[in-house]
Write the structure tokens for this entry.
Amino acid sequence: MVQDFKRGVDGAKHTGGVNMSLGKAFCVVCASEDELTKDRLCVPCFKERTTLSKLPDTIQGFRCPKCMMYMHDGRWGHHESDEYHQGLVEEKLEVENRADALGIAIMTEEIDERNTRLSVQVTGLIDGVQFEDIHSSITRISNSVCPTCTRKAGNYFEATVQLRSSGRKLTEDELTSLRGTFDTYLESIDPDPMFFISKEGKVAGGFDVVLGSKALARGWTKHLLRRFGGTSKETNSVVGRKDGEDLTRLTISYRKPAFNLRDVIRRQGRYWLIFAWQKDGAVISSIDRQERTGLTWRDLEKTSVESEAKDHLEVEILKRDSSAADFMDPNDWKVRTVSLPYDDDGSQATLHIALIADEWVALPGMNGGEVNE
């Protein structure tokens, strides 16, 4: 009996004084028989030995003092302050691989222009156990000039787009219109730090735009071709070598036609409207009957403009019959009569007219436009 009593005392010491039922699962650390995880640990022991997340006490960020872009995840871009702090936290936060249903909440407190205190709450499930961490960290923003500003300061460029016209000099209005499409095109595409203008200005015969990206130069040229028609020519020049490969610069010469959509031209004794642009030239539409044909750029240059689209007028019909209509001439306020266009159906209240060979001519309606691919 003495031996049995001693064996019982030693067993109690070995189990830490916890009464265990034979055959029932228990925590391998504290011997608790409460709910266990798949690692055979009770919830308190599992939480004590498992870390949901880690976050440094200090997080370093970088901002370009020239363009105010921020460095995030190895790339430069424009970010709002809160968005940037969230990105820094996501970049530096280390999370247990087994975590599910992860939630991150961030509260910011600005200390000064460069330092911000962050309170970060991280929640998640690991093996079905709910975890919650609270971190306190400070972001410090330092100045660092981005590659784009560095290249701008060094007059870096990859491509030049030369804006020209076929057979004549570009007018101021045309230059303004062509240059204005650059801003429109830039807003319509995904931003890129290299999409910048290094230099631009008037040159003999046109306008040159020096760009930081070949892709931007090619994209804008295609936009010009769709919008105004014309032709383009690419040339590449070698400016050096890097890592065994040639470094080249691209020059694109874009030539706008000496015409615009809805200009009236004379061809083979008849008058035609420029209806639409296509890759190899233009589609023209007859004024006097339902007829269309195509012209190459070379054929188009052999024609002459009889009336520019910018000089056409929209006038109100005063009176009409089956073949003609009266309108008020805005030049001298006298009533004139003009033959109705071939597509008139009697429902129009206005006419589109052009002065051709000192006579007013009513133009047919048309729905032309950009390049027909």
